[in-house]
Amino acid sequence: MSEQKLPTRSEDYSEWYNQVVLRAELADYAPVRGCMIVRPYGWALWENITAALDRRFKATGHVNAAFPLLIPRSFIEKEKSHVAGFSPELAVVTHGGGEELEEPLVIRPTSETIIGHAYAKWIQSYRDLPVLINVWNSVVRWELRTKLFLRTLEFYWQEGHTAHATLEEAEAETSQMLDIYADFAVRDAAVPVIPGRKSASERFAGADQTFSIEAMMGDGKALQSGTSHNLGQNFAKAFDIRYLDRNGVLQHCWTTSWGLSTRFVGAIIMVHGDDQGLILPPRLAPFQLVIVPIFKNDEEKAAVLDNAQKVRAELVDAGLRVKMDDREGLSPGFKFNDWEMRGVPLRLELGPKDVAKGSVVLARRDRPGREGKSFVPQVGIAAAVAGKLEEIQKSLFDRALEFRRANTVEPADYEEFKKAVEKGFALSWWCGSGTCEEEIKEETKATMRCIPIDQPGGSGHCVYCGQPAKEKGIFARAY
Ligand SMILES: [Zn+2]
After folding, report:
1. CA 205 to ligand 1 center in whole angstroms
2. Residues with beta carbon < 5 A to ion ligand 1?
3. Mean pLDDT, range 282-294, rounded to an integer
4. Measuring CA to CA, which residue among 339, 340, 271, 342 is closest to residue 13?
């Protein structure tokens, strides 16, 4: 809580982001560089994200389990490209109980290896398949440049790990989970995303194919917001995950993994926030509505608080998440600003006149000033609030989609491409060559975010080399 103004997004986007995270009390810095303390308000937001995803995972037949934090180092070394990808980021435990360990242990950077080890024991027959397990945990990757929620040494996420009898089933799983992430992003977070396939250079270490959902942040940069990997038989071969098929023949399984992390909190902040601070989508907001009682003397206070409690009870009974701000010694104006900064979608103001009239004032966070205010009768208040929250949810999505459209260019040539990636996305024909991709990155800092599943069809010429191209890719600078 501070009355000092936030920097505006156009002044300093990065500092605006940091200040919003700190002042809204989402997270704080930790004593170890690059680690993050998630504060209760930030954790409540994450809990709502986890609930929205967990519901979808279970509806598609997945179950939750837990695997150890510590992994023998030799496990990481079993899959060649996996070890190459993760070695630079590993945190290694060399001592335990005062003794040097015979074999060093790594703190999991992800759990494919230890889960692969377990699956090799558990899976014997085609009858054991598919195995559909998800894990909610935290992992550690020794990142050099860190930023709260977006890139921290330790972060929270879910990792799904599945094993299948056939390539087709693994492909279907990979694509189903990508769809689930996109559905969550659009419907719960009001974040428009582009589902697509990663280029070879951006693939997960050890995957045959990586898919992602990519979102445009408020500064035009991209954020990879969730990934789904088809691991082929790479981990099955490295860990000997095999099953006897219907003909009694021993086969290697086909495995997948997929994850969405606390990075997504960063996406919500940067997609919806404005110069006043956070704007949270109603379906995920820890508090969907804050009640600010307004009074001048003890007599008014008694009447207003009594009425406010009744209104609150009715809203809570209807299943809404409500905060009553009855803090003493703070002016209503201060409270308005405070909750605006913290992104609560709807504010309910209630003063003596409203008590007398049996009404309340509702103020929308996404529409500041008079335009977003309405007088609503207390009779039927829960339905009125629920209706407003739905309107806000929809308008946040529409606004974000419009912003992305306005900042996405299909460049006619490389000159236009270079201008496009300075402020947003370039959707361009790409020949598929890693060399073009690498040179584009060097010259413009834009990376190939994904090749959208939804392709325009037809063909064209690579924006960089002019060779024939069959697919269009999203290029952008990214977090
Ligand atoms: Zn090319």
Report:
1. 24
2. 431, 433, 436, 462, 464-465
3. 98
4. 271
CB atoms within 10 A of CB 293: 27
408-409 and 425-430 strand pairing: parallel
SS3 content of the chain, % helix, strand, coil (to 5): 40, 30, 35
User: What tens digit of pLDDT does each residue of 152-184 get?
Assistant: 999 999 999 999 999 999 999 999 999 999 999
Percentage of the chain lying above the pLDDT 90 cut: 95
Q: Which two tokens stand for residue 205?
A: 């270490």
How many angstroms from the chain centroid is the CA of residue 409?
25
Measure 338 CA to ligand 1 centroid, in angstroms: 50
Segment 83-101 shows an average pLDDT of 92
Mean pLDDT of the chain: 96
Cα of 202 to ligand 1 centre, how many Å? 17
How close is the Cα of 469 to the center of ligand 1, in Å?
8
Distance 435 CA to ligand 1 centre (A): 7
pLDDT tens across 219-272, in order? 999 999 999 999 999 999 999 999 999 999 999 999 999 999 999 999 999 999
Q: How far, in Å, from the CA of 132 to the mean position of ligand 1?
A: 39
What is the Å distance from ligand 1's center to 448 Cα?
12
